[in-house]
Amino acid sequence: MHTRNACASEERAASKSSNVKEYQFWQHNNKPIELWSTAVIEQKADYLHDNPVVSGFVNEAWHWKYSSAIDYSGAKGLIDLEEL
């Protein structure tokens, strides 16, 4: 069931996909990001960890229940991680 409150980005993503007619949550693209150094990997991990903070869901990245930021803060998250 589609709602009429769908975001413009969902409509835009759907318009670029031949198999979706109205709304699409994920955007498809062919722009891979090469993780060629430790610094780039850390930058991308920081970006992912900061998303719940920037969105206003939590005050600290490690407060987000599903984030690996918990593990990087020294606590134990929901899944086992192998740090590189």
What features would you describe in this structure?
It is extended and about 45 Å long. The chain is mainly α and 84 residues long. The N terminus is likely disordered. 35% of the residues lie in helices and 0% in strands.
Short structural summary:
This protein has helices at residues 8-15, 38-54, 69-72. It is an all-alpha fold.
Count the E strands: 0
Biggest β-sheet: count, sense, barrel?
Answer: none
Distance linking N and C termini: 42 Å
- What is the average per-residue confidence, as pLDDT, rounded to a whole number? 78
Percent helix, as a range, is: 25-40%
Number of helices: 3
Low-pLDDT stretches: 1-6
Helix/strand order, N-terminal first: HHH
- Structural category is mainly alpha
What percent of residues are in strands? under 5%
User: What best-fitting shape do the alpha-carbon axes yield?
Assistant: extended
Nearest-angstrom radius of gyration? 17 Å
